[in-house]
Structure formats: structure tokens, C-alpha cells
Amino acid sequence: MDPVDVDALKCSSEVVVGDPDCLKIKKPQFGLLIAPIITSKAHANDIDEQVIADFDATLTRYWIDGCRGQSSHGLLQQGNPEYDVKRQKLYDYYHPLEFNPTIPLDEKTKLMEEWWEKTHALLIEGGLTYDAIKNSVASATIAFREGVVELFEFLEERDVPVLIFSAGLADTIEEVLRQKLHRSFKNVKIVSNRMLFDQNGQLVSFKGKTIHSLNKNEHALDMSAPFHDRLGEDDGPIDDNASVKKRTNVLLLGDQFGDLGMSDGLSYETRISVGFL
């Protein structure tokens, strides 16, 4: 594999990498890829970089031991088989529509909103608890891509914010991070569909507007929240949203065209977009 031309990357806001092996998240290759962003400022303390990453099939693996890895929605088992079946039926109906090229985008967007809203309603009606989330994650077929921990550590050491932007479930994503990585990162914030639980740990509602696969651009940054440790305290914000919006160099990681909208609202000078197949 030929080395990445860092100088060439510094001078371009769009980069096409012909060799897919360059895009594997492993520390040496990633260090070369992110170098033009991290080193773009003359002064080391003048930091204006950030990473915006999708979660399902981007930070997590698409295939695990020959099986399709589960998403933060798909891994949930409510402890109520009737409602698990109902959610699966919704998936079987709407998922093919999500990737149907003959459906106009505006119509498809309404269908996705309908799917997400119905799914969330079933989670509430079926009595989902936080204990069920923990148990579901423990038994789920989900794993992070090789090098994700090293990636997060690399960015944390340099005070580079990581915004995990997902149409999945924030509380499930946090539990996956907790159980699979066994640590939290002070620079990580999550924009996703966040649940509200009562004192008994039962889901009662969702916070804010619904984020689905085709409207990420409508929610960019405004719904970001610090990682919550479930013990009554947050790790603390890595930055306020106004400051994050001022960061002009972006590394965007995703696996669908809709993920390109995750950086909307930013007046960036340089964006490197990496797609995972």
C-alpha cells in the first residue's frame, strides 16, 4: 500500500482514497489520515478539529463471525416477546422501503419518521426497562471495529471532540460503550434518540425530536449531550455547542449517504469524509 500524501491532503477539502485498506481504522493508518487535520494549525494549542461519526456499522462491525452485527435498535429484547415480534414486523415492512431507489426522498423521509415513531411507541407500550437494555447488550452480536479504542485514545490525548451521531438509541449506545470498551472518554458526546425513565427504570418517553436515518442534517449538533454515567453525574461537556460549531476541520465517518448531513450547520474549511462499506 502506498503511503498517504499528507501534504496533498492539507491542500484539499475533498479527498478520494483509491485503496480501501487505507480506510481501516488502525492506529498507524488512521494517524496518517487524520494528520492533516490535527496539524493544520501553526500553534499546537489552537485546536479547531473534531470528528463526527455514525455508530451502527461505522464504529461497530458490520459482520461478526460470519453473522450480521446488530444495531442499537436491533439488539433490544424488551422482555416482552409480543412486542419484540411487533417491532420485527415493522422492520420487515419498512427496511426494504428505506433502500428502495424508486421512492422519492420526501416520501421516504415521511416513511422513516413513521417507522421510528411506531418503534419508539412500542418500546414504551411494551414496558422497556434499563435493566432490559443492559441484558440485551450483554447478549448482543455487536462489536467495535478494530482500532476504535486506539482512535478514541488518540483523539482524547489531543483534546479533539468526538461526536457520535446516530439514528439509533443513545442509552443503548452508551451501554455498548460501557460493556464493550469498559471505559468512557471525556471528549465523546452523543447525538441520538435519548430515553427518559421513571424511578423504577421503566421507559416513559423520548427526549426531543426523533432522529431517523434521513434527517440527521436537521439535528446536527443541537441535540448533543455529554456521556452520562447512569450514576447521576455526567462526565461533563467537552465543549459548548457554539464552540463546537466554530471548529472548522472535520473528519466525518459514516456508512450511508445520509451520514454526509451530520456536518450540516458547520462552517468548515476542510472535511474529510470516510465511508465504510
Structure, described:
- The protein has 277 residues and is an alpha/beta fold.
- It folds into 2 domains: 6-62 and 143-275, 3-Layer(aba) Sandwich (Rossmann fold); 70-138, Pyrimidine 5'-nucleotidase (UMPH-1), N-terminal domain (DNA polymerase, domain 1), CATH 1.10.150.
- Helices cover 35% and strands 17% of the residues.
- It has 9 helices and 9 strands.
- It has helices at 6-10, 27-38, 81-98, 105-125, 130-138, 148-157, 170-181, 216-219, 241-245; strands at residues 49-53, 63-64, 67-68, 162-169, 188-197, 203-207, 225-226, 249-254, 270-275.
- The strands form 2 sheets. Strands 1, 4, 5, 6, 7, 8 and 9 form a 7-stranded mixed β-sheet that branches.
- The longest helix has 21 residues, at 105-125.
- It is globular.
- The two termini are 19 Å apart.
- Its EC number is 3.1.3.5.
- One of its GO terms (molecular function) is nucleotide binding.
- Belongs to the pyrimidine 5'-nucleotidase family.
- It is an enzyme of class 3 (hydrolase).
- This is 5'-nucleotidase.
